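cron nightly-structures :: item 1 of 1
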Amino acid sequence: MATEVKVPALGESVTEATVGQWLKKPGDAVKMDEPIASLETDKVAVEVPSPVAGVLGELLVKEGDTVNVGAVIATVEAGGAGASAAPAKAPAAQPAAAAPSPAAAAAPVPAAAPAPAEPEVAGAVTLSPAVRRLVLEHGLDPSRITGTGKDGRLTKDDVMAAIAAGSAVAAAPAPAAEAAPATPAASGAPGRAQERVKMTRLRQTVARRLKEAQNNAAILTTFNDVDMSAVIAARAKYKDLFEKKHGVRLGFMGFFVKAACMALKDIPGVNAQIEGDEIVYNDFCDISVAVSAPNGLVVPVIRNAESMSIAEIEKTIGGFGKKAKEGTLTMAEMAGGTFTISNGGVFGSLMSTPIINPPQSGVLGLHRIEDRAVVVDGQVVVRPMMYLALSYDHRMVDGREAVTFLVAIKNAIEDPTRLLIDL
């Protein structure tokens, strides 16, 4: 008996999603509640579990199709009988394929062509577009790389780590690359091949929202630099005790989130948003923290960060990072937010002009720390410096307020005691 697999509820006000990836193929055995497909909504990826144990039957939609909540996307043959039926179909298919062979002399030649293509199709089903692109670019064999994602699936970090370690073995089907170029330009000029990949729903949403922010807000960016010596010294002194007591590493984000909460209380306009012809001021700090995920940048929210300790903030951020890597962040965890902190420094960025996350009116950009010569008390000294960037909506935040906000962040980081005495 076939059981229908339906699109689950995706969250409040979310009515449709895009089929991002089929995690199983027709005929594969599946366990109850085992993910068989991944759906992409405007903000997160949602896995569709199998309602019963058995064998995956017909796939009613393709990757890239848009589906509504409650729509039937596949069937599962339930029970042990269904599981045993899968191997039975494979031998039956082989005689059928062999039967036409004596009927036509030319049949053996085309019959050999589909055979090597099978592993490539399987790889395309199990690899996300970003991972697939990396594997193709570096000529790797994904079966030789250990996956750390959910259910052992490969992530971008897995592939990059294998490349850096030199442990990734070149893929065996190299001749397929010669057959791939179908256009005259590609065949005549090695290295000029092109690949078209449909934008994921998440990437489409990011693109749309960023463009809306530029069109609707009067975005201006102001810069400052901060001496990280005091925070680095505090971190070096207490990081072992901190990790032993709280079970999480002491990073820099905890300091910056606390500093931002103090500055937002002093300059409430940066923690507000425009709604129609009104300005809504928030007396709480829900800090959106940009986190890198396999499918792009996601922005989960630390709720009521103003009332949290640095340890609680670090634990929350660590949990978000793990969920982002596994693709298990929920819509609720990314909804809202009154102010955003984006740390491009982890990727080596020296300076940038971040774009605000509507309807928020401000975003703080952090960058890499590097030793630079600065003048302190009339002497040229070398200090670990970081550039800070505050992008804000100039419709409601004046330049004086923006500069004051950024200076408050600078003062708190250069003298962390201010975070303890709220100064």
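cron nightly-structures :: done
Residues 81-125, 171-182 have pLDDT under 50 and may be disordered.
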